[in-house]
Specification:
6-stranded parallel sheet; about 550 residues
């Protein structure tokens, strides 16, 4: 079983004293942590997880790796102030509250984040979810901001660097832009910050131009900040998955990080009173699932925002299950359409990043460069402040849907191959790089791993040919079928006509076997299929 590490800040009661004394009903409260733990207990996850009950203390020097002396000393000074003095101090900041206990709570959150990052990079644990508060991604070098005292994600990145991580990816899924994290790493090329957030052309907090598509980093960090601003509410699974597949995954794979940090804000979920988006908890867990495929599952998720406590709990638990190795939940029905404003934002971001990433060069056409960035889509129109977070009544908010009969199962990996069929598809003179030994080497190596290796021995030839004819012309299929009876000279002529290919008298059977292996549907258990196919010249993951 894949373990996940959950810091038990709840058990230490560290964050209880950190509260909003002006508005005791403020949604950024300990009730968020309690809701997650109650959901974990209800679903029986606590017994399956490795719970961290203690973390090493940190000192000022570690805090000052990402924050100025004045910032750190300002937070520490609240320990000896009266509540009225603290309220006066907080009134000079943007959306900050504190008590004499807040400094200790913030230190505890940082200590937890740093230790988990160190353990993951060192290979002591595979992944972790930091269920902590106060959140952190709005705190920058010089100042607390937006309910955040210290930047937990930035501190985790610093600890990962010290432990030996050379490239760190931070993915911010909170509905608010994490301007603090962005500013801390804006000139760095070893930390890639990627944020998907509600912006509305600056109309949504934190109301900054730097939250737009054109903010991409500076100096050696140019290209290592990626912002995808959502310009309207109601963006859902389709929008987030579009951003994941068209931009996040390609750039992440080009960057090749040693370690991934997710600023896991759940105010981007449907039902959040501030975010007003339509991302589902299941959709959110699919994002985490795909991020885990980038770097051997070395992912640290850190709790950020989220103000519908029941939805926060549902989202967090679904992400934990994925991080434990379970399959993400099935998306029921239609996932909606991609909003045109989302397409515009992605294309504007691609335009800004075009000189910096090889994976985006398919867009490097004159027509694209003339069209993007779209000036109307990158405008900045900051209004007056958005609605405050006060007076949110949790009992009136949207609740997660109750699904009956849901069974959570671990993936198993099955390697499918086409038996010895590929041996008949071999270049006549034996000089091609595309040789049968590729499959043989893979099978030999996989035999030492804990996977099921299955050979597809039988298939419905009529069905396979019917499927092939749906994607290829009849002339193409007939020529390949007739190659079974061609002379060597005719085979050489056909191969030369098809360019960078070769054909033998065994190619037709090998091609049928390759297709049959790829489309097999005989296994009903949730699995990852690794298809080894000689004829297709690919090794790909499907399903």
């Amino acid at each position: 079983m894949i373990e996940i590490c959950i810091p038990a800040q709840r058990l230490q009661r560290k964050d209880y004293g950190h509260r909003n004394t002006v508005n005791e009903a403020h949604p950024e409260s300990h009730a968020r942590i309690e809701a997650i733990w109650q959901r974990m207990e209800k679903e029986g996850l606590v017994e399956r997880l490795q719970i961290v009950r203690k973390f090493l203390p940190i000192d000022e020097s570690e805090l000052r790796s990402t924050h100025s002396r004045d910032h750190v000393e300002g937070v520490i000074s609240t320990e000896k102030k009266s509540q009225s003095e603290i309220n006066e101090w907080a009134s000079g900041l943007d959306s900050v509250f504190a008590t004499p206990d807040s400094s200790d709570a913030a230190r505890s959150a940082v200590a937890c984040s740093r230790q988990l990052a160190e353990w993951i990079v060192a290979g002591k644990i595979p992944s972790a979810f930091a269920v902590i508060r106060p959140p952190g991604h709005h705190a920058d070098v010089n100042s607390p901001c937006g309910f955040c005292l210290y930047n937990n994600a930035a501190q985790a990145a610093d600890a990962a660097r010290i432990e030996g991580a050379k490239r760190i990816l931070i993915v911010d899924l909170d509905v608010h832009h994490g301007q603090g994290t962005q500013r801390i790493f804006y000139q760095d090329d070893d930390v890639l910050y990627f944020s998907i957030h509600r912006h509305e052309y600056g109309g949504f907090w934190p109301n900054l131009a730097e939250s737009g598509s054109m903010a991409i980093g500076d100096e050696k960090g140019m290209g290592y900040t990626v912002n995808v601003p959502l310009q309207e509410t109601g963006c859902g699974d389709a929008d987030y998955l579009f951003i994941l597949f068209s931009l996040l995954l390609p750039i992440a794979r080009d960057f090749h990080p040693d370690f991934i940090i997710v600023s896991a804000g759940f105010d981007s979920l449907c039902g959040d009173p501030l975010g007003r988006m339509e991302l589902t908890p299941v959709g959110y867990s699919h994002l985490i699932h795909h991020l885990k495929t980038i770097r051997e599952g070395k992912v640290l998720a850190i709790l950020e925002g989220g103000y519908n406590h029941s939805m926060v709990a549902d989202g967090a638990v679904q992400c934990m299950r994925v991080m434990m190795g379970e399959q993400p939940g099935k998306m029921e029905g239609e996932i909606g359409r991609i909003k045109e404003s989302t397409r515009e934002s992605v294309l504007n971001t691609i335009s800004a990043l075009l000189p910096h990433w090889q994976c985006l060069q398919q867009y490097a056409t004159d027509e694209f460069k003339k069209t993007y960035p779209n000036p109307s889509a990158t405008r900045f129109e900051p209004p007056e402040r958005d609605i405050p977070t006060a007076n949110i009544e949790q009992e009136k908010l949207m609740k997660p849907e109750k699904k009956k009969g849901v069974v959570h199962r671990l993936f198993r990996t099955i390697v499918l191959h086409e038996g010895r069929s590929h041996e008949e598809h071999e270049h006549l003179d034996g000089n091609s790089y595309e040789r049968k030994e590729r499959i043989d080497v893979c099978l030999d190596r996989l035999s030492s791993l804990d996977v099921d290796v299955e050979e597809i021995k039988e298939w419905n030839e009529e069905k396979i040919i019917h499927l092939i004819e749906k994607t290829h012309s009849k002339e193409h299929v007939d020529r390949l079928r007739n190659s079974q009876e061609m002379s060597d000279s005719d085979l050489s002529l056909l191969s030369s006509q098809w360019g960078d290919s070769f054909v033998t008298r065994g190619t037709w059977r090998a091609a049928l076997a390759a297709v049959a292996t790829t489309i097999q549907e005989q296994l009903s258990s949730p699995s990852r299929y690794l298809v080894l196919s000689h004829i297709d010249r690919i090794v790909e993951e499907v399903g």
